Amino acid sequence: MTDQPQGAVKTRLYVESPLAEGQSVGLDHERAHFLRHVLRLDRGDAVAVFNGRDGEWRAVIDGFGKGWCSLTVAQQRRVQSAAPDLWLLFAPLKKGRIDFVAEKATEMGVSRLWPVFTRRTDPNRVNSDRLRANAIEAAEQCERLSVPELVEPLPLARALADWPADRRLFLCAEAGNARPIAEAMRETGPCPAALLIGPEGGFDQSELDELGKLPFVVPVGLGPRILRADTAVVAALACWQSLSGDWTADGGDTRPPFRSPTEPTV
Amino acid sequence: MTDQPQGAVKTRLYVESPLAEGQSVGLDHERAHFLRHVLRLDRGDAVAVFNGRDGEWRAVIDGFGKGWCSLTVAQQRRVQSAAPDLWLLFAPLKKGRIDFVAEKATEMGVSRLWPVFTRRTDPNRVNSDRLRANAIEAAEQCERLSVPELVEPLPLARALADWPADRRLFLCAEAGNARPIAEAMRETGPCPAALLIGPEGGFDQSELDELGKLPFVVPVGLGPRILRADTAVVAALACWQSLSGDWTADGGDTRPPFRSPTEPTV
């Protein structure tokens, strides 16, 4: 057992298993390797685990085997809290930029990540496993209690075909009529929301025209510069979170858990 | 001369020279190579140039030599407009992440980029040439008419020693007392502003305490998740631009110039 104060945890892991006191949790080869050979943890060391349903728990390493690690769940550290109801629809970008979108959108608290193909979308497929791995890693790192739901990629028109009537879709449009984002979001107020970010080449004009006719679409402008798609993702999510999301509340619950220098979580 | 409509430009370049009709502009080896061998431009082709003072101009390639290219400035395309007065003070990050900060902060419209060393800042030096090259590239790409001023890196305390009394410094604090960012920025209103983003490991508690005592410092919170420093840069800048900066205005001037698919600017 490495030298650490009682209660301190050496990392945070997302798991699928149910979490409750005394529950056993098995980790796969990759996680076991990470704990043993990267973090150099041993039997008796503690990690934090969360599964998106049962809050965050301290769990203690029982032992390692060839390609596995088992943990026993001990005390609860945080109770599950509701996450904002915020979807991100985005045109897939090339590798590197799409990794970034998954990481940043997760940090920014989206509940659903949804790749959609627009007319000028360059990549015509998405590596969903890679997207999910990036989202999980970001959730572990940023102290989220959940991982965004990853929805099957679809052509934009199909994604919008069964759109829920009460959910506003903020269209981040680099051309055409659009109101300043803060003004439009303030007027809309808190509600189930989604943001739509186009591809690097922008939306097609006909696409913007069609989108503008949909009753749930609110075109918004992100200022006078042309933002890269990955920049627009973070920027638009920041506007929503700060005006209508979980960045609006004062108080202890809304501040990140304090991470002391002696208790790294990564 | 490649086949392009009159007036169309094939790329956008930042130059140091004064710009006015008939003026000659020389490009260095790297730019000349880029125009000739990457974009495959030739004598008579047009590019757009800007220098941060004289607006944006169409310029025509006169010819290439060994390691140079000369242009003649033709018509003005856009007049110079005022940029927001917004500084970004940030703790240097490792390569990759700091490139990202330079790119994103430029797209987000900062007027001054200022690396500052905090107690837990990991890299102890900054490659200013690289930072500047990233900022220039982003300015060319995002249709800005200027490049952020790059200030000599300093320890945080020294950067704050001669702070202008009328400039608010929004401290993006992951711990301690801080008001929700939108609320704090709305109350402060439009004014000369600066944002301070700490290092990956966060500020030291004593550092936060000292910062909190300075009359121009406004601590702000960015929600319940721990954001990476590079995420916090884009998010905090988006809040300021959308509430107090140049994303607030309606109207033609505040929409990006339309970039048609047949007129790529990169």
Automatic annotation (TrEMBL), chains A, B:
Function: Specifically methylates the N3 position of the uracil ring of uridine 1498 (m3U1498) in 16S rRNA. Acts on the fully assembled 30S ribosomal subunit.
Name of the molecule in the record: Ribosomal RNA small subunit methyltransferase E
GO BP terms in the entry: rRNA base methylation
Cross-referenced Pfam families: Methyltrans_RNA, PUA_4
Ribosomal RNA small subunit methyltransferase E methyltransferase domain boundaries: 85-241
Ribosomal RNA small subunit methyltransferase E PUA-like domain span: 28-61
Catalysed reactions listed for this entry: uridine(1498) in 16S rRNA + S-adenosyl-L-methionine = N(3)-methyluridine(1498) in 16S rRNA + S-adenosyl-L-homocysteine + H(+)
Keywords: Cytoplasm, Methyltransferase, rRNA processing, S-adenosyl-L-methionine, Transferase
Molecular function, one GO term: rRNA (uridine-N3-)-methyltransferase activity
Family as reported in the entry's similarity comment: Belongs to the RNA methyltransferase RsmE family.
